[in-house]
Amino acid sequence: MKALTSRGGVDAVSQQMASHPQYLESFLRTQHYILHMDGPLPLQYRHYIAIMAAAQHHCGYLVSLHSAQFLRVGGDPLWLQGLEAVPPRLQHLDQLNKVLAHQPWLTARSHIQALLKTGEQCWSLAELVQAVVLLAHCHSLSSFVFGSGTDADPVPLHIAPNGTPPGYCLCDAANGNVSAPPPLTTPSEHTTRRWVRAVGCGLYQTEYDIDEEQMIYSADPSRFITDPEFGYQEFARREEDHFQVFRVQDYSWEDHGFSLVNRLYSDIGHLLDDRFRSVTALPSSHGPDLKRAIWNYIHCMLGIRYDDYDYGEVNQLLEREMKLYIKSVACYPDATKIPLCPLPWAPLKPSERIHVNLLIMEARLQAELLYALRAITQYMIA
Fold it and tell me: Rounded to a whole number, what is the largest CA-CA distance in the chain?
């Protein structure tokens, strides 16, 4: 009800999470902060980075949603043609984006140094930290979208030259209730059209004239990907390349990541920490041991280990089908690569199924943040 009152509509992701209202409130508060509140990155950059992140998993739902929001905040429609149309500093973020999305253990000080090097197109440290939070948030949210079955075909956007889709309501887009746009005129034809939008969700669009070419961009995730062959690989099989296990005892969220991200991006540490605490505190009929097994199993697949945990519990508590499901949602949720295994445990209530997907999302989010923040720490002390 809070989301409906404040936003005028409830998107499909929020509807899925609504069975856990305490967590949903924490999630929406964090998402609103990183996308809309004070921060070093312009609003257009924030939504474009979200597009880049969601595209890594071909998440058409999120790419479409943030494409609409990107245009609403005045983003250049030409940027939606692909990465080759954006400023170089956003292009430079692509390498870190794909590494965090698929093989986060590869994240190194060199990635941070390359983005922060002096020059006209460099990033500030504060900008980069916000970008990292956005990337990790949208990568992990893509896992939830696919795991919960929220993903849908991208919605074509009818775009006016000033960057605002005429008659386009973001709340409608989020719920898939977008009617087909009016036919477009050819570029050589001079047109004057008058649009008015007064929607029940409280988002109003005043009348204006269109005298320039209008265009349609389909939110095709592939146009934002430069290396489609790059994907998840088994961490255990990469040990011959001398990738060391990430030991939580050496660098943890509680002792290191939280304080660093909170110092460089004010208050975000508290918001993220509240999400982690909220999801682990959700009631479950299967007890805390199962929740910890799911969390630690995800981190293990991403190269993160806990010295004080007996990993034998993972095999005892998680059936093979459950492990296959968790792995597919956490590591390669993109259904165009490997079809998701159905969630086992048929007796599970819908809220418990959502709980499993929330655990997967938050564990993955924390893992990506740990790798990125450790690399930033290494850059700062070098």
Answer: 71
CA distances (Å), origin 54, targets 57, 141, 308, 351 = 6, 8, 34, 25
Report yes or no on whether pTM surpasses 0.90.
no
State pLDDT tens for residues 207-239.
Answer: 333 332 333 345 689 999 999 999 898 886 544
Cα distances (Å, whole numbers) of residue 8 to 2, 30, 171, 195, 265? 10, 18, 7, 21, 29
When pLDDT is averaged across residues 54-79 and rounded to a whole number, the result is 94
Give the Cα separation of 342 and 77 in Å (integer).
38
d(C-alpha 166, C-alpha 192), whole Å? 13
Residues ≥6 apart with Cβ < 8 Å to 196: 205, 206, 207
Q: Provide mean pLDDT across the span 38-52.
A: 97
- Does residue 157 have a pLDDT over 50? no
Q: Of the candidates 347, 312, 341, 314, which has an alpha carbon nearest to the alpha carbon of residue 328? A: 341
- What are the domain boundaries of the chain? 17-150+218-381
Q: Are 210 and 192 in contact (CB under 8 A)?
A: yes
At residue 302, the pLDDT reads: 95
Residue 341 has which token pair?
Answer: 């295994």
CA separation for the pair 95, 135 (Å, rounded) = 12
Residue 200 in this model has a pLDDT that exceeds 60? no
Q: Distance (Å, rounded) from C-alpha 145 to C-alpha 142?
A: 5
Burial (0-12, 13-18, 19+ Cβ within 10 Å), 186: exposed
What is the overall mean pLDDT for the chain? 80
**Residue 219: both structure tokens together:** 């939110």
CA distance 176 to 171: 9
Q: Can you read off the two tokens belonging to residue 43?
A: 């609003």
Question: Above 90 in pLDDT, residue 352?
Answer: no
E-assigned strand segments in 206-296: 215-217, 246-247
Q: Identify residue 91 by its one-letter amino acid code.
A: Q
Instruction: Sort strands 204-205 and 197-198 into parallel, antiparallel or unpaired.
Output: antiparallel
Burial track 265-274 (b if 16+ CB lie within 10 A, e otherwise): beebbebbbb
Predicted confidence band of residue 180 (pLDDT cuts 50, 70, 90): very low
Residue 323, pLDDT > 80, answer: yes
- Candidates 328, 252, 303; CA nearest to 104 is 303
What are the residue numbers of the active site? Answer: 59
DSSP 183: P
